Amino acid sequence: MAERKKIIIDTDPGIDDAMAIFLALKSPEVEVIGLTTIFGNVYTTLATRNALHLLEIAERTDIPVAKGSHVTITKGTKLRIADFVHGNDGLGNQNFPPPKRQPIELSAADFLIRQANLYPGKVTVVALGPLTNIALAIQSDPSFVKNIGQIVLLGGAFVVNGNVNPAAEANIFGDPEAADIVFTSGADVLAVGINVTHQVVLTDADREKLAESNGKFAQYLNKILDVYFSYHHDAYSTKGVYLHDPTALLAAVKPSLITCTEGAVRVQTTGITRGLTLFYNKKKSFEEVTEWSDKPSVKVAVTVDAPTVVKLVMERLMHS
């Protein structure tokens, strides 16, 4: 049996984060060695509470939770919170009782650095929210980009419109400066953007199958999915929901599910296109030295095997 991949999920739970976390715990290919929390779908304090709660539901209180940054990398406090997508509590307005556990003493960035040092080249970070914690780890420890195995991030829109505004996708928009630090760090980065995740839809019929199954996780998710389905119905006129976070998680677990292109990515940090992710394929070399020159390449997902992603999500959640 191949060695299980060690993953840390950097998360802002979030309904599809809950799905991705449960999916990871039911994926025999990986070992979840920690959750780190960040603002995005909810504020960091609530994200931390939700992460602890989800591990309690999963009976995996052995997995540590490290609380992340409350502000952006530039110390910005005006945060964009997507509670209108996930409910005021981030988990479908169910108002679950508070978890019994507390987060560990280490900050998210310090926990990321410590795990990367402990298992050099072996840890994959799956980043499902704004990239502040990862950027802080890169800034705090110059060896982090060499020690971390891979950073698989959900973020960017690349060739399609954003989901916050026409230019920007939510996670990148949440902290564009942090995203630019991560993309230009030289780490092994794979970006899974909404150009790919919008191809992966959990339909109303799929949800009914989840509801009918005896799976513990399936039953829990069915309870919290109402708000998420309503939002998608109103915003996109779809009979289903996009599986953003589970798709990014499975891209880390089973890389064969996606195909990628490689090149440099920069993030616009000002003006009406703040949060825009721009990809440079390096097929042309430019005379002038610019902010693009000598920037390392990253991988950007371009296609996804959507039927297999949905099938794996369904199977693993129903058998839980």
Automatic annotation (TrEMBL):
Keyword Cytoplasm: yes
UniProt GO MF annotations: inosine nucleosidase activity; protein heterodimerization activity; uridine nucleosidase activity
InterPro entries xref list: Inosine/uridine_hydrolase_dom, IUNH, Ribo_hydro-like
Ranges of residues in domain Inosine/uridine-preferring nucleoside hydrolase: 7-309
EC identifiers of the protein: 3.2.2.2, 3.2.2.3
Coiled-coil residue windows: none
Compartment(s): Cytoplasm
Catalytic reaction annotation: inosine + H2O = hypoxanthine + D-ribose; uridine + H2O = D-ribose + uracil; xanthosine + H2O = D-ribose + xanthine
Enzyme type, top EC level: hydrolase
Keywords: Cytoplasm, Glycosidase, Hydrolase
Gene Ontology CC annotations of this record: cytosol
Gene3D superfamilies found in the cross-reference section: Ribonucleoside hydrolase-like
Swiss-Prot/TrEMBL GO biological process terms: purine nucleoside catabolic process; ribonucleoside catabolic process
Domain of life: Eukaryota
Family: Belongs to the IUNH family.
PANTHER family for the chain: INOSINE-URIDINE PREFERRING NUCLEOSIDE HYDROLASE, URIDINE NUCLEOSIDASE
Name of this chain's protein: Inosine nucleosidase
Annotated source species: Olea europaea subsp. europaea
